[in-house]
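Hey L., structure's done. Input below.
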Amino acid sequence: MTSEKTTAKPGDNPYRLIALDVDGTLLDAQGGVTPNTKATLQKLASQGVHVALATGRRYIIASFLPGLLEIPLYLILSNGAVIRDHTGAITYESYLPSEWAWRAVEEARRLGLQSTIYENAAAGDHMLFDGDWRAHRGPQAALKRRPELESLYVDLNTVTDLPDPIEIVHWGTDEEMQSLAEALRATGFAYTLVFWRGRESSSFVRDGQSALEILGPNTSKATALTWLCTHLGIEPPQVVAFGDDVNDIEMLQFAGLGVAVGNATQAARDAADEYTHNDDNEAVARTLRRLFSID
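Output:
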């Protein structure tokens, strides 16, 4: 568990910002939210408490989220690379410099790995594949849910200009991802690397695969929350954060109260101040009602 954090308490230094991971934390198995969760967040929002959804998703596959809760909120996207406000406007960006991106692709090619590059929204929000995208599991799975996304799939070999992308993702074995990480560190560029190990991750990888996300310098959900707190005039002890996986660790440590939920990885539990089961997908509502003394 984390230590030396000042934790706000109801009636003492009330929480003013709720930061919620999405997959595995807020959403249920059907991709929705429970009526109790929605009602709880609506009640708190009506009292002036800010809500931020913090996800690894890009905006194009996260834009439906505000409609589930029907409250003004902030979207922290792509693991902290982008923040959009309740109007959809981008208020914060932390992209991967183009030169760094090309170098990462070269290092991956040298190791026989294929890169998936996510464009920033201003450039077009395409997914650029170094190789045939039909051989990638991720795109195939996404198309089953969103067939229209195929129009955004691009062969990287057809691209000469690469405006600073959001991130690059690779899938493979633990050993392949470790080798790539070592190669990237040796470049001297200050990449932010997020590991998803198949034996540990609760949501991002499947079938025993591991993954490595490559982001720009100092990019995380916590860094984005730091900016958002400054923007809103909120101190870290006034933040309560909920999460379940490796990309939530810094956020759970940053918040005045970090809550690991449900099938959280051990690393997420270790980073949090408390853990709660997500029975009937009610962990968020149950915890918030306790913290804010809601009957």
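The first strand starts at residue 17 and ends at 21. The longest helix spans residues 98-110.

-- N.
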